[in-house]
Amino acid sequence: MKIKSNLEALNRVYEVYDAFSSTLDLACKEKCAHCCTSNVTLTTLEGYKIVADLIAAGKLDVIDRLKDTAGGPRFQPLLTANRMAELCAAEAKVPQEDTADEWQDCALLIDSLCTIYDLRPFGCRCFVSRKNCGETGYADIDDFTASVNTVFLQVIEHLDAEGCSGNLIDLLPFMASEDNRRAYEKGELNCEDNGLIVNWELKVLMIPPEHRARIEPILQQLREINP
């Protein structure tokens, strides 16, 4: 597996998205943690990056905070974004996903601040809202931003097509294991046996017709990222 080049590509994808999100008029601000719950998902590539950077900083013990919430209510995805895109394109039945009835606060929060904020996965980066979620009870995201978010989810999954996806509570402690990281580097992870789901290559982009012209500049930037 091309770990180094894939990580470099992932960093570039994050940069493109962060540049896009910086243009949005958002209510999100420091210590606004209403969306920081136990329902965040990410890929093994993102998990590998987070763990590697925490090890380099001598802060891998941060992940121990997740162990207290293991087994608790959380979103465990049945489908990845690219698999869902293929099913939708084929007009096949898409399984109904179940979210946790009671969302726990993310265990990585301390005093409403994320302890891995600079390393946070895309599943956290794309939680944006034009209004305060604590006041409305929901995230207010315009349709175009939702389309952009979906494209980035698909591209990040494609970068990790040989890997897996899952809930942050499950995946980060899993990737904190040196044996699992070595297996990942060799392309030998068994997703299903570890409570994760298999990633898929990007074959169909889920972009509504009305957004295609507007999103093209972003797509061009993403096309230029070659792992």
Structure keywords:
227 residues, three-stranded antiparallel beta sheet, two-stranded antiparallel sheet
Backbone structural class: mainly alpha
Count of alpha and pi helical runs:
9
Please mark out the parts with pLDDT under 50 across 5 or more consecutive residues, or reply none: none
Give me the Rg, rounded: 17 Å
Order of helices and strands: HEHHEEHHHEHHEH
Cα-to-Cα separation, first versus last residue:
11 Å
Number of distinct beta strands: 5
Classify the beta-strand content into a percent band.
5-15%
Gross geometry: globular
Portion in helices: 40-55%
Q: What is the arithmetic mean of pLDDT? A: 89
What is the total number of structural domains? 1
Strand order of the largest sheet: 1-4-5
Q: Please describe the biggest sheet, giving its number of strands, its sense, and whether it closes into a barrel.
A: 3 strands, antiparallel
Description:
With 227 residues, the protein is mainly alpha-helical. It has one domain (3-223). It is built from nine helices and five strands. The protein has helices at 3-21, 44-56, 81-89, 122-125, 133-136, 143-159, 168-175, 178-185, 212-223, and strands at residues 41-43, 109-110, 113-114, 164-167, 197-198. The strands form two sheets. A three-stranded antiparallel β-sheet has the order 1-4-5. α1 (3-21) runs antiparallel to α6 and α2 (44-56) packs across α7. The longest helix has 19 residues, at 3-21. The model has no long low-confidence stretch (mean pLDDT 89).
